[in-house]
Predict the structure.
Amino acid sequence: MQSNNTPVYFLISHPIQYYAPLYKEMSASGINLEVLYCSDETIKEFHDDQFNIQVKWDVPLLDGYKFRFLKNNSWKPSLFNGFFGLINLSIIPFVLRSPKGILILHGWNRATMVLAIITSLFTRHKIWMRSENPLSHELAKSSTNRLLKKTILRPIFALCDKILFIGNQNKAFYRYYGVPENKFVFTPYAVDNKRFLAEANMLKPDILKNREKLGFGKNDTIILFCGKYISKKAPLDLLRAFNKSNLFGGKLILVGEGELRREMEEYISVNNLSHKVQLTGFKNQSEIAIYYSIADLFVLPSDHGETWGLVMNEAMNFNLPVIASDRVGSSYDLIDTKSNNGIMFPYGNVDALADAMTQMTKRCHARIEITSQKVINKYSYETIIENMKAALNNG
């Protein structure tokens, strides 16, 4: 499908390792794209407060698409300073002077996003909105909070010509705040499936060698977690569930870093799990594939705040079965109850998590077909681009 040449301006806080390859694909497909960044903090080495280390992404973040950085005029400029951490006043003349097109806003919780919406009222730009918010997280908030948000969000969404929803819970969120069906465009949350599938195929012949290299045996059942060692990700719940499950040959790898490391190490020591559990520390994008390739099962036990969980997408490209809590946004899309690709469990229920791990490892040992790769095919850059082009051509 050929798109028209309508300019598409994507306004987002900062370069993100999951989005950069999407922008490259969009540009290569013929979409007339320019990405407007409010901050360049993630381009250079920066301190990630949750990983609690210095981070520099080792994948290209600016290749293959048109972009510009907007000057940040905040009195306390930072990605981590909330609404007023990003105040990019140059968005005002940009919106007023740029050729008529589509302005896509990634959320509304930054001052710059609000400035862009207000300025667009004086132009002929169309506004499209894309955010991550799941309804399940919204309903956990107080009724007062939700009532206040309705007075703010309903008018904002009414100004939007299209709503780019990422999954079932995200669409339900928008419906809750009054968005009609004719505004929706499905643009699923996705990773670079082509890259991860290529890595999966490349690493497949060397699984046994790589297991040995990383300290694991041929017959070990490897359970994998990838994420920050922080409360939201609930890595201690996973440790407790793993300890309860007493899986024969079970080994647990937790790829990540964060403030809970000391508490996790103490739990491992007290419960004599050092021969079964490996804390790897932070692994960059180019290092992560080898862990997916040797694993048998992926687990994401997160609390509210895990609006999607793109590590699930990554793991499913390696055809791993998945277990996730009912507070992980992607659980409602990526865990297919009609297939054998995963189990969703009640957040915080350690016994239920332990039981889910036991069930899934039995499925693996029984060689029941796992369908994760089939499920994840729909959640791709190709789906995003196809649906965006259709929306552009339909006005």
The chain has a mean pLDDT of 92. The radius of gyration is 22 Å. Residues 143-159 form the longest helix (17 residues).
